Amino acid sequence: MDLASYIRDIEDFPKAGVIFKDITPLLSDPKALNKACDVLCGFAGHMHVDKVVGVDSRGFIFAPLLASRLGAGFVPVRKSGKLPHTTISESYELEYGSEILEIHTDAIKKGEKVLVHDDVLATGGTANAVCKLIEKLGGEVVQCNFLIELTFLNGAEKLNGYQIEALLQY
Ligand SMILES: O=P(O)(O)OC[C@H]1O[C@H](OP(=O)(O)OP(=O)(O)O)[C@H](O)[C@@H]1O
Ligand SMILES: Nc1ncnc2[nH]cnc12
Q1: Is-catalytic flag, 78?
Q2: Does the domain formed by 46-169 have CATH 3.40.50.2020?
């Protein structure tokens, strides 16, 4: 099954010059959705994972599915002002803007093994900020996995030292 054929390019979204990778055709096809989930799970299938961290908002689509299949808990990292309990935060730059991400201080215990999931690795700003939040709480990032890696934006360089897996590379 060619999962790349379910990804749609949208030019100049959300800003002029950006080619946006739209994953909604893949999500709406039952077989493609299931296959993507199988491959993402397979990346981490050999590891012990305590928590899967998903990144607001498209990271929330697969991360809870991965957590459930891997026997781990799910932890949301959210854009600022959305989490109700005590948080720590990190500011960062991404392909088309800048943002602040937050995590609940009690979401990860010291020494827990954490899998980070997001739909797209572009410049790596987002994933790098997420790894910093996890490490500030004493967690160990065992893998960062993505549906899509935009290799020409060199995000992997910002995640130097972390294991990175991506289902599709452009
Ligand atoms: O590698 P980077 O350059 O940091 O970009 C990757 C991030 O950009 C997108 O999120 P976005 O902030 O657009 O939010 P969304 O998931 O709510 O659409 C994507 O889902 C990643 O989280
Ligand atoms: N080009 C892109 N397409 C989809 N999501 C993104 N996040 C950052 N850059 C992106």
Answers
A1: no
A2: yes
Question: Does ligand 1 lie within 6 Å of residue 120's CB atom?
Answer: yes
Minimum-distance ligand 1 atom for the alpha carbon of 150? 1
* Pairing outcome for strands 97-104 and 87-94: antiparallel
Q: Which residues pair with 118 in a beta bridge?
A: 146
Per-domain residue ranges of the chain? 46-169
Task: Give the chain's end-to-end CA distance (angstroms, integer).
Answer: 17
pLDDT per residue as tens digits for the range 26-65: 999 999 999 999 999 999 999 999 999 999 999 999 999 9
* pLDDT, mean over the chain: 97
Report the predicted TM-score, pTM, of the whole model to 2 decimal places: 0.97
For residue 58, indicate whether it is catalytic: yes
Choosing from 69, 90, 93, 95, which is the catalytic residue?
95
SS3 17: coil
Pairing between strand 140-149 and 113-121? parallel
- Identify any residues that bridge with 79 across adjacent strands, giving them in sequence order: 101
- According to DSSP, residue 69 is labeled H
CA 33 to chain CA centroid, nearest Å: 16
pLDDT of the residue at 130: 98
